[in-house]
Input
Amino acid sequence: MHAVIVWQNSIFILNEELSLQYDRNPIESIKTRLKSPESLLNKMIEKQLPLTVESIENNINDVAGVLVICSYVSDIYMLADVLLKQDDIVLVKRKDYIANPKENGYRSLHLIVQIPIFLHDKKRMMKVEVQFRTISMDCWASLEHKIRYKKDVHISPEIADDLRNCAEICEVLDHKMEAIQNKVRPTAL
Output
């Protein structure tokens, strides 16, 4: 987790640099998490993988996770591009659920990257899942998760449609807010 926190700090520094340069912060907040040993064990069993450290390293892409909440969609792509230009980060996989939302309406940019962690006697590359969302994407994802994953709750097709419609409203909101931002500050990031 230490490596993720160090990497998180580099995102904070980038945010401050952009704030000074453009007079606004593209990042609203950053959250990190590390999968619990129990969650890792369950995932390994579910995928019918050997219960070894090597198997975890080779097969589990989200042992550590970073969620970056941005102001605007353009900020997401700009930050992702800037982060991937760092010479110690290796892109493993990119899933663009903004350009291609999931069927349920979920939108986000997911990057699986490898970052270096420094042990006492060597450097190892660790996979980290980085999710970029706007404020409205994160609001929808958080509330949708609370609704969909409550115990003993059946999500009817009508409710699923309502949730998808809410995601589409969030998408419209993102576009409108960014258009307003561009009118107010045409030379923004």
